[in-house]
Design goal:
- This protein has one domain: Glycoside hydrolase/deacetylase (TIM Barrel, Alpha-Beta Barrel).
- The relative contact order is 0.22.
- The protein is α/β, with parallel strands linked by helices.
- β4, α7 and β5 form a beta-alpha-beta unit.
- Strands 3-2-1-7-6 form a 5-stranded parallel β-sheet. Strands 4-5 form a two-stranded parallel ribbon.
- The protein is built from 10 helices and 7 strands.
- Helix content is 44%, strand content 13%.
Length: 214
């Protein structure tokens, strides 16, 4: 199981070669923490408190539909100094959708997040990590930079052993993906503690989104 998991934890080098326009690692060599599927009424506050404990700043890739229902959580994320990114409006797999549907998912999410935060949104991550050249180009046409990852923690399985296996593969410049969602709620406190300890052991430093994504 763990052997097969490595293929998911670490995106194949061929994907980075095929899609060089996307961001796969940081430019600073530091570690960038990211969360998908935000916000969530049960978990976002807890995640923010945990990040504050470690003095980490993260990127939250937010779903427009959830954001429109929980605007206060989006403002909390932003006021805590974290970055807000576009994760589409309904968290649909963009692959296979017609162009009009893809654009609606991206544009509608941008509109919601911009209205709540009062600022422009510049970062984008497609749901499930499913990308294509068309998707990257369409996002770029709206001023969005596609940010992927080099380490998927598998936290959404709520299996701490899987999470630890993934974290032990971390290296310089990693973009780490977790989830601000009930599906990872049970393991996040201990998981983040393990991540912090392992980074300290490996002498890896967390970076600010601004320095990691120059």
């Amino acid at each position: 199981m763990m052997k097969n998991l490595w293929r998911i934890v670490n995106p194949a080098p061929i994907a980075r070669y095929i899609f060089p326009e996307a961001v796969w690692t940081t430019t600073s060599g530091k570690i960038l923490i990211t969360f998908d599927d935000a916000p969530d009424s049960r978990t976002t506050g807890k995640v923010l408190n945990l990040l504050d404990d470690y003095n980490w700043k993260a990127v939250f890739f937010c779903v427009g539909e959830s954001s429109s229902k929980n605007p206060g959580l989006i403002r909390e994320i932003a006021s805590a100094g974290h970055r807000i990114g576009n994760h589409t409006y309904r968290h649909k797999n963009l692959i296979g959708l017609a162009k009009t549907e893809r654009l609606e998912e991206i544009m509608k999410c941008n509109a919601v997040l911009s209205e709540i935060t009062g600022g422009d949104i510049h970062l984008f991550r497609p749901p499930y990590g499913r990308i294509s050249r068309k998707i990257i180009r369409e996002a770029a046409n709206y001023g969005l930079r596609t940010v992927m990852w080099s380490l998927l923690t598998y936290d959404y399985k709520n299996d701490l052993n899987m999470f630890k296996f993934a974290v032990r593969k971390i290296s310089d410049g990693a973009i780490v993906t977790m989830h601000d969602h009930v599906k990872s709620e049970q393991i996040l406190p201990e998981g983040l503690r393990y991540l912090a300890d392992w980074m300290a052991y490996k002498q890896l430093k967390p970076g600010l989104p601004e320095e990691c994504l120059k």
